[in-house]
Amino acid sequence: MGDKGINRLILVMLLLFIVEGAIMPWLIPVELTGRIVPHFMFVFVVFAALYSGRHRALFFGISFGFLQDIVYFGHLMGVNAFSMGLIGYYTGVLLERRRSTLLTALSVVGLGSILYDTIVYFVNMVFRITKETYAWALMEHILPSLFLQLVFALAVYVPARRLFESHLKLNPDSDEE
After folding, report:
1. pTM of the model
2. Contact at 8 Å (CB) between 24 and 38?
3. Which of 82, 93, 113, 125 is the most buried (most CB within 10 A)?
4. Are 101 and 83 in contact (CB under 8 A)?
5. How many CB atoms lie within 10 A of CB 132?
6. Is 167 within 8 Å of 5 (Cβ atoms)?
C-alpha cells in the first residue's frame, strides 16, 4: 500500500476517532450513557488485521489506542494501545492466509470486542481503578457495547473491505512476512 493508501486509512481512523468521541455521546440515549462505549476504531483495527495484515493492525492499534489513552483515559496511559495492538496483531496472525467472509468478520469483531473490554477491565482492576466484579462489568458495559460494535461492523463491512482490498490490488507486492 502506497503513501496515498496509508494516508486514506489514517484519515478514516481519525474520522472514526472524532465520531466515537464527539458525535456518539449525543446519539446514545441518556439512560445508556456510561453503559455503552463505542469502539469504532477497534473495529477498524480488526478489519485491518483481517484484510491488510498483522503489521498494519499492530500499527493502527498502538497508535490510535495511544491517542485514545491521551485524550479520554489520562489516568492510566497505554491500556488501549496495548489492548488494541495485541488483539489486532494476533487476529492478523491467526487469520493471516484465510479468506474472511462477513460471518467471520463479525465473529472476530465480537470476540475481539469482548476480549478488548476484558483486558481493559482486568488492567484497571490490577491498578485498583475499578472495584466492580467482572460479572457486573460484563452485564453493564461489555455486552451492551458489544452490540453497538457489531452493528457498526455490519454497517461498514462492505466499504471497509473494499477500501483494504482496493489498496492490496494496487500494490500486490506488499505481502507481509
Report:
1. 0.89
2. yes
3. 113
4. no
5. 12
6. yes
